[in-house]
Amino acid sequence: MDILVIGSGGREHALVWKLAQGSNVDKIYAIPGNPGIKNNAECISDIAIDDNKKIVDFARRKNIGLTVIGPEVPLINGLVDDLQAADIAVFGPTKAAARLEGSKSFSKDIMRKYKIPTAAYESFTDAAAAKEYIKKMGAPIVVKADGLAAGKGVIVAQTVEQANEAVDEIMCDKAFGSAGDSIVIEECLIGEEASVLAFTDGETIVPMIPSQDHKCIFDGDKGPNTGGMGTYAPAPIVDGKMLEQIQAEILEPIIAAMNNEGKKYRGCLYAGLMITSDGPKVIEFNARFGDPETQVILPLLESDLMEIMLSCVNGTLKQMSIKWSDDAAVCVVLAAGGYPRKYNKGDIIDGLAEAQQTGALVFHAGTRENNGKLVTDGGRVLGVTAVGADMKAAIDKAYQDVNLIKFNNMYFRKDIAQKAFRHIKTK
Ligand code: AMP
Ligand code: GLY
């Protein structure tokens, strides 16, 4: 079977890498792909990911057996609906179901209606009413633009003044465009964050190995938020018992809720959670795989990813037995110095061949080929993943591999996965 993967980041590289190991996979195409993806797939760089018509025509022409969508934007643009209308099998939620990520007020309202644990909140389309609510609730408090804002539309305000400024920025200055026409203001949750991604066919939902992202740019979770500076799995804060609670109180209820609302959700559901002293609570749902969570989850998956995805498309997930390795995985993101603010592009990347010789798994996120040389082409450039028998072994190997790679002003966090040791004892 031939597969088409949509997207160009580290997450899509990991998806392509894992799909390529499938026993019934003949050829993989990627739109648009990246220089790392090129090792496992033919990259079609002249079709834009928001051009649904061209993507559907391509899939039809190539007789694609399964399309997998990486990023949220094509999901929210209804690419799944258009592929389904053309009878092309596609892994991912429809436009209506992807609102779970695309609209924070939709997602909060459905959680409230179906009693899924999440922060207390109110939605507003009027700045004065929003500020009135902030005054009543006090700080700390969280202000969120309703729509997609590339992970930047969330302000955790420590004071009422900061929260009011955030309201002005989102609603009056339109810092995130129409994503800020409406806002959600919510209770600030206290605890440790974890990501639980799950496969679902709309009836059955099967969690993957829990993971943890590191969103801040600096060690010790300091500095501004980024797209994610590194991940590890399994995250011991979500032990077997906690995962059962998440399954019973969050994952199963949201899938049943979406069904009840006539918006059957199929694909990967990402629950961003705060593990509070009151139990797990949803910070947000995403309608796709996490980036860079995927770069640590898929290397631990022992089953055939294409078979799992097809079972989600066909409604037969219940019959699948999904196997995971007992190892640990760590991904360290190598960023261009200055990211998430101003950074340089076009710097030559050295050492990848050496890293690959040591068995390093290097996922490309922001790279480009220039006159036969690999150069940087984004803020997050590469994700270096290592698998080890335990977390310490995985961390050590990841940083050994990182040390082989070099580019001008390369920056990475030195403390990825250290949080795991709050919950596991070292020997
Ligand atoms: P989001 O884009 O919704 O994932 O939010 C980005 C980050 O803001 C999250 O990863 C959390 O660190 C933080 N955050 C969002 N909502 C809350 C909340 N209600 N309480 C505390 N922190 C939050
Ligand atoms: N790692 C965060 C996300 O994918 O949204």
What does this structure look like?
The protein is α+β, with helices and mostly antiparallel strands. It has four domains: 2-94, 3-Layer(aba) Sandwich (Rossmann fold); 126-181, 2-Layer Sandwich (Dna Ligase, domain 1); 192-319, ATP-grasp fold, B domain (D-amino Acid Aminotransferase, Chain A, domain 1, 2-Layer Sandwich); 328-422, Phosphoribosylglycinamide synthetase, C-terminal domain (Glycinamide Ribonucleotide Synthetase, Chain A, domain 4). Helix content is 29%, strand content 26%. It contains 13 helices and 23 strands. It has helices at residues 10-19, 52-61, 72-76, 79-85, 99-102, 104-113, 127-137, 160-172, 240-260, 294-297, 305-314, 352-357, 391-402; strands spanning 2-7, 27-32, 42-43, 66-69, 90-91, 121-124, 141-145, 154-157, 183-187, 192-200, 205-207, 212-213, 216-218, 222-225, 230-233, 267-276, 279-286, 328-336, 361-364, 367-370, 373-376, 380-388, 410-411. The strands form six sheets. Strands 12, 15, 18, 19, 22 and 23 form a six-stranded antiparallel β-sheet that branches. A five-stranded parallel β-sheet has the order 3-2-1-4-5. It has a four-stranded antiparallel β-sheet with strand order 6-9-7-8, with helices on both faces. A hairpin with a 2-residue loop joins β16 and β17. α7 (127-137) runs antiparallel to α8. The longest helix is centred in the middle third of the chain and has 21 residues, at 240-260. The protein is globular and about 60 Å long. The mean pLDDT is 95. The site of glycine (GLY) has 6 residues, from loops.
